Structures are given as C-alpha cells and as structure tokens.
Amino acid sequence: MTAAEVGRRMTDQGLKWDRFTVANLESGKRQSITIAEWLALARVLDVSPLHLLVPLEEVEFSVTPTEAVPASRARAWLRGTEALPGTDQRIFRSEVPLDELPEAPRLTVEGRTVQDRMRAEYRAVTGKDIDDNALLDWMLRGERPAELGDRN
Predict the structure, then answer these.
(1) Which residues have a Cβ under 8 Å from the Cβ of 140 and sit 6 or more positions away?
(2) How far apart are CA 23 and CA 36, in angstroms?
(3) What are the tens digits of pLDDT across the range 28-59?
(4) In angstroms, rounded to a whole number, what is the distance separating the alpha carbons of residues 10 and 147?
(5) What is the sign, positive or negative, of the torsion defined by CA atoms of 104, 99, 64, 50?
(6) What is d(CA 83, CA 77) in angstroms, rounded to the nearest whole number?
(7) Helix axes 3-12 and 35-45, enclosed angle (nearest 10)
(8) Tell me: the pLDDT tens digits for 93-118?
(9) Distance set, CA 63 to CA 22, 29, 53, 127, 138 (Å)
(10) 23 with 3: CB under 8 angstroms?
C-alpha cells in the first residue's frame, strides 16, 4: 500500500491523514500517534493493534520509561493473560470480565468429569439432584454432603 493509499484510508476512517503524514511517521519525523490513530491504522492495515505496538521479535520492550520486559511477555500482558512482574495477581485477574475468563480445565476420573461423578454419587445415595452451586460449595470446603456420609 502506498503512503497516499494509507492516508486516504485513514481519512475514510475519520482521521485527516495524507501521504505526508504517513511519510513523516515512517521516517521518524513524527514520533507519536494518538490512540484513535493507532486503532484506525491497525484497522486500515488489517492487523491487530497489538502488532503495531509490540514487535514480534523476542526483544526487550519498554512498558514504561524505566521497565522493559521480553516482547512476548508484553504481548501477554496487553492481552490480559499474564501479569507483569510485581503485579498484584488478585487485582490483575479481578479486572477480567467473567465472560472472558478462560475456562478451567475439567478434571476427569475414568472418563467422567469429577463434577459429573460426584453428582451421580450424590444422586445414587440421596435420590436427589444437586445444583452446580451446591456441588461446588461443598467441594471447595472439602466436605461431602451429609447424605453421603463417609463412603470411601
């Protein structure tokens, strides 16, 4: 894509760019862009904004003027999948919307999930079903439902 084409497409995205803006950015005469420009440029180039920000090569990447981490670590941090060193993990993980949390691996025993196996055992002893919340509650406490007793 020519500088003129990038400029035209950026203008189509609502930012007044021309070939001179692109040339100045490429030559280093212009050393910064706004977040709106960064996002529009990624859209125009059909790439993730992340790839315009952090190099794909495994080099040290400055996340602040005083801190650098490997580029792969910076990409994981920006994706929200890995905290930077010294980060409070509880705060970092708590800021992820619940629907974006990765699903926890399901433990299996003899081809069945532990959850399904425990639910079936509860049903066999009590004749009742147990909902996911109640099942999780007593599993997290390390207890068994009173109806199951000490069947080991």
Answers:
(1) none
(2) 19
(3) 999 999 999 999 999 999 999 999 999 999 99
(4) 66
(5) positive
(6) 5
(7) 110
(8) 887 777 776 676 666 767 777 778 88
(9) 25, 22, 11, 57, 43
(10) yes
Instruction: Kindly report the pTM of this predicted structure.
Output: 0.60
Tokens 């910076």 correspond to: 74
Please tell me the distance from the alpha carbon of residue 50 to that of residue 87, in angstroms, as a whole number.
Answer: 21
CA dihedral 68, 58, 29, 33 (to 10 degrees): -70
DSSP secondary-structure letter at 83? P
Contacts of 103 (CB under 8 A, 6+ apart): none
> What's the Rg (C-alpha) of the chain?
26
CA–CA distances in Å: residue 84 to residues 51, 62, 96, 142:
19, 12, 15, 33
Q: Burial, 128: exposed, middle or buried (Cβ in 10 Å; 0-12, 13-18, 19+)?
A: exposed
- Tell how strand 112-113 and strand 108-109 pair up: antiparallel
